[in-house]
Design goal:
Layout lengths: L18 E5 L7 H13 L2 E6 L4 H4 L1 H13 L3 E7 L9 H17 L9 E5 L6 H5 L2 H25 L6 E6 L13 H14 L2 E5 L6 H12 L5 E6 L11 H13 L4 E4 L1 H4 L5
Parallel strand pairs: 1-2, 1-8, 2-3, 3-4, 4-5, 5-6, 6-7, 7-8
Helix pairs in contact: 1-3, 4-6, 6-7
Amino acid sequence: MVMISGCSGPKSSAGNAARGLWYWQGTIHAAREDAGLVQHFKKGRIQAVYGAFGYSPYDYPERMKAWNALLHSNEMQSQYLLAGTDWFFPEKREEIFLRLEKNLIEFHKKCQPQERFDAIHLDIEPQALPQWKSGSPQERRELLRLLSESFEAISQYLNRWSDVPLPIYADLPVWFDSFETIGWESENDRDAWFYELSLYLDGVSLMAYERTDKAVILADTEYEFSRFRECRIALEADIGHGKSWRTPKAFFRMIEKLESAGFAIDIHNWESYVPLLD
């Protein structure tokens, strides 16, 4: 899938107060448990679930079909979450392609439309690696080159082999555009990198973690909103003393402020978010 870069306006094309949620479960429960969980999702106004199910679509296709159909019957998207901090290295490509083949391409051939995934969601974060933390700005720039090439390879693979058009979304921190952190050679170098990503990705979740002021969040995501057609602001349900949000009320107040301004919100993650709904 290809998206148009540089569209104007601050609002996501999905900005209808629908929320996305990372679901780091890895397994499928019994049908009754899944139904109860989805009811919690509905209570939290979740309309897109980013599920990290590993090889479950290949190993347990019928259960995975039922999960996707359950989400769709409740007007929710089901996105296949592919996550790994080092999966942008060229030597990891074959492993990624194998996962795509087994868990998406072959799985979808066995599915009715309502049983398929709606998209693939990539959570590949070089910034979590030790070599990023110890590296120079120039070395980090090189890691971002590899990340872009990885997104390109995934896009090309799916375009070639998938019988079903499959949008590709990815998670990005809000500071990849920083000249202090990344050794961008120039503004043109930075802009070209983001433009390349806009060719391979249909949208991004901008991880505005550790930011609790609306003005700061909007300032830190302004550049990315000018680069991608669909952007969502991701907040972390990290609540308690010494954490991002002192109280659940403060967390939900920020969500409401951003949603009232037309921004679509993603929440990390289900384990910390769902208990807030009781």
